[in-house]
Prior knowledge:
- By secondary structure, the protein is an alpha/beta fold.
- The chain has helices spanning about 15-30, 35-50, 60-80, 100-110, 130-135, 155-160, 190-215; strands at about 90-95, 115-120, 160-165, 180.
- It folds into two domains: about 1-85, Corynebacterium glutamicum thioredoxin-dependent arsenate reductase, N-terminal domain (Helicase, Ruva Protein, domain 3, Orthogonal Bundle), CATH 1.10.8; about 85-220, Rossmann fold (3-Layer(aba) Sandwich).
- The chain is built from seven helices and four strands; from the N terminus they run αααβαβααββα.
- Helix 2 crosses helix 3 (about 60-80) and helix 4 packs across helix 7 (about 190-215).
- The protein is globular, with a radius of gyration of 18 Å.
Amino acid sequence: MDLTARRGMPGLAYPEDYLKRLASDLTDKFAGIFGAETVERYVLESYTGLLRTSKVKAHLASQTTRFATDRLTALAQAKGAIESPVPEILFVCEQNAGRSQMAAVLTHHLGNGRVHVRSAGSSPTNVINPAVIEVMAELGLDLNEEFPKPLTDDVVQAADMVVTMGCGDACAIYPGKRYLDWDLTDPAGLPIDEVRLVRDEIKLRVESLLADLLPAEPSH
C-alpha cells in the first residue's frame, strides 16, 4: 500500500516522511525476502495499529520501528526465510499491559538467551499497568521501554508455543504449534500486594515452562 494513499484523511495524521524512510530501510533489511509493497503495508499497518493505543505520541515513531521490524521478522521466520535458532514463545493476554508483559520479560530473563519471546494483546490498552512496572522493577527487570502491541497473525505463525491468558478465542490456531492457557488473575486495578502475587505465580509458571521446554544448562 502506498504510504501517501491516506494523506488528508481525518484522524490519520502521521509523519509521512518518517514512514517512507522506515519502509525504505526495512525494504533494504529484508531484501530478497519481501518486496517494497509488502514492507510498506506492514509499516502502515503497524503504525495505525499503534496509533489507536499509544498514549505517548512522541514515542510512536520508535515503537513503530520496533513493531514493524518484529512483525516482518516473525513473518520471515514463519516462511522459513529466516532461521530461528531458539524456541519462539508468544504470550497473549487481553490488554498486553500486565500478565503477558510480565511473562515475556521473566521468560527473556530466565531463559538466558535460550528462547526468544514476544507478547501481544487481543484488545491492547494504551499503557502498561504502572503497578506491573513497579513489581517487575523490584526484581531488577525494566519494563519502561515496553509498550502494548496488538495481536497479529504473523507473530502467531512464528511461534513454537503460544501461551494465552484470558484472551478468549482471539488467537488463531495453527497445526503443529503447542498451546497453553494460563488461568491467571488480571492485575488491572489490584492493590500492589496482589499484583506481586500475580507476578510470583507467573514466575513459577515460567520456570516450569522453561524446565519443560529447554535442556538443563550444564553445571559449572
